[in-house]
TrEMBL record:
Species assigned in the record: Ethanoligenens harbinense (strain DSM 18485 / JCM 12961 / CGMCC 1.5033 / YUAN-3)
Entry's localization field: Cell membrane; Membrane
Descriptive protein name: MotA/TolQ/ExbB proton channel
GO biological process: bacterial-type flagellum-dependent swarming motility; chemotaxis; protein transport
Key words, A-Z: Cell membrane, Membrane, Protein transport, Transmembrane, Transmembrane helix, Transport
Secretion signal, residue range per the UniProt entry: none
């Protein structure tokens, strides 16, 4: 939501700046916009196989989704209570009702008789792999920002060359230079208003997801160890405190 609000504010500021300086239609050039957006997307696709591109975009979407820390706490408390009352064997039936993928994997490992060391190793490996995918998604948007600037600069050079070939006197020079500068302006806008803020959002979301994964791992290990409810609660709140604090501020 904050990304959309920020984007609207940027658009409003730019609109006010443009309207105060003359005719905004002079800043519209469909070919330049198509060159920047299409060139940025095409070069981004050229640098990655299709499967990797889809994986990174999917990781970006997952990283930016809202973390359900309260729901994770409730599920782990319920599992801890179930394990203490009916034993670890009862956790197998609870696995389909759990929403967190890492907790579900932990339950499957526990039901299969895996040791706590094995459970921790497997879950931490999965968490590290997801963290690496999220970092790659962040780098994708940063690379797209650099590509947008590069394509915009190349477009300005090409339009300058074409303008000089069509030079018909001093009266055509200023409008030609102004039009030639539009691609680099579009590239800068695409990079600094869209792509780099998206990269920052992915990074912030990845940090929240990493905290969520740490809580899931510690929680499932506490469940396996049969720790008392208050111990499970304290372990989770120690890890999830930043997320819970942010959620309370947002509400």
């Amino acid at each position: 939501m904050s990304f959309v609000v920020g984007l609207i504010c940027c658009a409003a500021l730019f609109a006010a700046f443009i309207l105060g300086g003359g005719n905004p239609a002079l800043l519209l050039d469909g070919r330049s916009a198509l060159l920047v957006v299409g060139g940025m997307a095409a070069l981004g696709c050229m640098g990655l196989p299709g499967g990797m591109l889809r994986d990174r975009l999917g990781a970006a979407v997952l990283a930016m989704r809202r973390t359900e820390s309260k729901k994770l706490e409730e599920e782990l408390f319920s599992l801890a209570r179930l394990a203490r009352e009916k034993g670890l064997i009862a956790l197998e039936d609870a696995e389909p009702r759990v929403s967190d993928a890492l907790v579900r994997e932990g339950l499957l490992l526990i039901s299969g008789g895996a040791s706590p060391e094995t459970v921790r190793a497997v879950l931490e490996k999965q968490a590290d792999c997801q963290k690496a995918r999220e970092h790659a998604a962040q780098e994708l948007f940063e690379r797209m920002a650099y590509l947008a600037i590069g394509v915009g600069g190349a477009g300005t050079l090409l339009k300058t060359v074409l303008m000089l070939h069509r030079y018909a006197g001093p009266q055509t020079l200023a409008p030609g230079i102004a039009a030639a500068l539009l691609p680099v302006a579009y590239g800068a806008l695409a990079a600094y208003v869209v792509m780099l803020p998206l990269a920052a959002r992915v990074r912030a979301g990845a940090e929240r997801q990493e905290i969520q994964r740490q809580a899931a791992i510690e929680g499932i290990l506490a469940v396996q160890a049969g720790e008392p409810m208050f111990v499970v609660q304290e372990r989770l709140r120690t890890i999830l405190h930043p997320i819970v604090k942010q959620a309370r501020r947002a509400s």
